């Protein structure tokens, strides 16, 4: 059976305030074309279909279009909800949609109930484990301590128990949305540590032929049978070095796995550049980034004037500006409290200006700060009298 594994579409999400809806629509078209041209037998989407619980209408319309196009191909699709999705909302109409071959798995209690598909070699059972928030599902799975490993392990016990009742030789695929030990995170995944230690060992998926994971945005192989597809599009500059792709997985008669990466269309390259403003504007080696989405880190000791406007003249798609002034190696490494000890409000404010801008306030700016502090003190005095 040939399976196309994808996840983390995040429909409705922007990239540094740039709408990604057009790029997301292009990805959906690419996915449908891949299914048709590469002889895919089943599509799995491992969570974070949407970027937030209540997605914008345009994102819902794009999802609706994706469902219709996949259903028209007659290729079964299995989807789970991720930590960005509202499981209840995503699962509305699941029973009816399932008749069209689109199987939405958003209910944790159904973790042990598979979608069973057939190929020339027999049955393949697809188990959908939606994102399991420990505090919300610990009672469902009968675990005493609300932790990610505990609830996922309990869900997998249900999977293995059901698999044991199946016809001998039944192959198995698990969809899960989790942070598995060994995976490399980026800046664009939402933290899931609130429910306890986030990482779970890959061994929790022991006993199944393939675990199709979602949550981490980089395509990666944890083991030959446990993989992340990653997000099809970048959602932070920490993904500048990612190769965005999907996994095309072939499951043979014995359950052996072979996998091939299928690249996703790139709307625009990402680049992270660093140096003083003048260096970035003059360096001929940066010409290759002039049409990229750019994150520029300026190392000027004093913040230059109009840095974004000047950068945009050469790099018109600059989206992020970071200041990291180079400091002398002998700068004292003292605590915040030590730096404030014995200093007046005026001095602390002047130090803050120097820290942020790289140079302290001039005489006029010192006067503005002094007048502001005097006004605050006068206001406090009036309030004290009124009491």
Automatic annotation (TrEMBL):
<dbReference type="InterPro" id="IPR004843">
    <property type="entry name" value="Calcineurin-like_PHP"/>
</dbReference>
<keyword id="KW-0255">Endonuclease</keyword>
<keyword id="KW-0235">DNA replication</keyword>
<dbReference type="InterPro" id="IPR004593">
    <property type="entry name" value="SbcD"/>
</dbReference>
<dbReference type="InterPro" id="IPR026843">
    <property type="entry name" value="SbcD_C"/>
</dbReference>
<dbReference type="InterPro" id="IPR050535">
    <property type="entry name" value="DNA_Repair-Maintenance_Comp"/>
</dbReference>
<dbReference type="InterPro" id="IPR041796">
    <property type="entry name" value="Mre11_N"/>
</dbReference>
<comment type="function">
    <text>SbcCD cleaves DNA hairpin structures. These structures can inhibit DNA replication and are intermediates in certain DNA recombination reactions. The complex acts as a 3'-&gt;5' double strand exonuclease that can open hairpins. It also has a 5' single-strand endonuclease activity.</text>
</comment>
<keyword id="KW-0269">Exonuclease</keyword>
<dbReference type="GO" id="GO:0008408">
    <property type="term" value="F:3'-5' exonuclease activity"/>
</dbReference>
<keyword id="KW-0540">Nuclease</keyword>
<keyword id="KW-0378">Hydrolase</keyword>
<feature type="domain" description="Calcineurin-like phosphoesterase">
    <location>
        <begin position="1"/>
        <end position="218"/>
    </location>
</feature>
<dbReference type="GO" id="GO:0006260">
    <property type="term" value="P:DNA replication"/>
</dbReference>
<feature type="domain" description="Nuclease SbcCD subunit D C-terminal">
    <location>
        <begin position="267"/>
        <end position="355"/>
    </location>
</feature>
<dbReference type="GO" id="GO:0006310">
    <property type="term" value="P:DNA recombination"/>
</dbReference>
<dbReference type="GO" id="GO:0004519">
    <property type="term" value="F:endonuclease activity"/>
</dbReference>
<dbReference type="InterPro" id="IPR029052">
    <property type="entry name" value="Metallo-depent_PP-like"/>
</dbReference>
<keyword id="KW-0233">DNA recombination</keyword>
<comment type="subunit">
    <text>Heterodimer of SbcC and SbcD.</text>
</comment>
<comment type="similarity">
    <text>Belongs to the SbcD family.</text>
</comment>
<protein>
    <recommendedName>
        <fullName>Nuclease SbcCD subunit D</fullName>
    </recommendedName>
</protein>
<dbReference type="Pfam" id="PF00149">
    <property type="entry name" value="Metallophos"/>
</dbReference>
<dbReference type="Pfam" id="PF12320">
    <property type="entry name" value="SbcD_C"/>
</dbReference>
């Amino acid at each position: 059976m040939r399976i196309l594994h994808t996840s983390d579409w995040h429909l409705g999400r922007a990239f540094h305030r740039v709408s990604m809806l057009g790029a997301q629509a292009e990805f959906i078209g690419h996915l449908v074309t891949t299914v048709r041209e590469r002889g895919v037998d089943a599509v799995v989407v491992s969570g974070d279909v949407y970027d937030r619980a209540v997605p914008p209408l345009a994102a819902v319309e794009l999802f609706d279009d994706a469902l219709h196009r996949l259903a028209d191909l007659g290729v079964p699709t299995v989807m789970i909800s991720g930590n960005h999705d509202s499981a209840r909302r995503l699962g509305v109409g699941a029973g009816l949609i399932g008749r069209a071959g689109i199987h939405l798995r958003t209910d944790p209690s159904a973790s042990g109930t598979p979608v069973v598909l057939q190929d020339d070699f027999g049955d393949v059972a697809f188990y959908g484990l939606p994102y399991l928030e420990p505090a919300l599902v610990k009672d469902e799975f009968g675990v005493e301590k609300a932790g990610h490993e505990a609830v996922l392990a309990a869900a997998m016990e249900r999977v293995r128990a059901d698999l044991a009742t199946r016809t001998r030789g039944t192959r198995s695929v698990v969809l899960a949305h989790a942070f598995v030990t060994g995976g490399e995170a980026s800046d664009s995944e939402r933290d899931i540590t609130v429910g306890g230690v986030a990482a779970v060992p890959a061994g929790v998926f022991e006993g199944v032929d393939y675990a199709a994971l979602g949550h981490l945005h980089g395509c990666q192989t944890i083991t030959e049978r446990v993989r992340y597809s990653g997000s099809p599009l970048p959602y932070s500059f920490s993904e500048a070095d990612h190769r965005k792709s999907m996994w095309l997985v072939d499951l043979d008669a014995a359950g052996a796995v072979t996998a091939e990466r299928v690249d996703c269309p790139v709307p625009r390259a990402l680049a992270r550049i660093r140096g003083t403003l003048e260096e970035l504007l003059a360096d001929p080696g940066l010409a290759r980034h002039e049409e990229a989405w750019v994150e520029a880190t300026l190392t000027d000791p004093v913040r230059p004037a109009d840095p974004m406007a000047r950068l945009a003249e050469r790099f018109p798609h600059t989206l992020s500006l970071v200041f990291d002034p180079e400091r002398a190696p002998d700068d004292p490494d003292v605590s915040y409290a030590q730096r404030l000890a014995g200093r007046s409000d005026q001095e602390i404010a002047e130090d803050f200006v120097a820290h942020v801008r790289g140079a302290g306030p001039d005489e006029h700016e010192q006067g503005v700060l002094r007048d502001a502090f005097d006004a605050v003190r006068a206001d406090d005095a009036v309030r004290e009298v009124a009491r």
